[in-house]
Write a structure and sequence with these properties.
It is built from one helix and no strands. With 46 residues, the protein is mainly α. The relative contact order is 0.08.
């Protein structure tokens, strides 16, 4: 019983960490794309 709980807890933690890393990577790309768009707009209007 205890080993099943530990297995479940370990899998839950790894899954949460993995999903969190992918979410942060995606957010970083979105921010980078937004910054590039702003920079192109500034360069175009200068």
């Amino acid at each position: 019983m205890k080993s099943n709980f530990l297995l479940f807890l370990t899998l839950f933690v790894f899954t949460t960490v993995f999903c969190g890393c992918n979410a942060m990577r995606g957010a970083g790309k979105d921010v980078q794309n937004a910054g590039g768009s702003i920079q192109r707009t500034v360069d175009h209007n200068s």
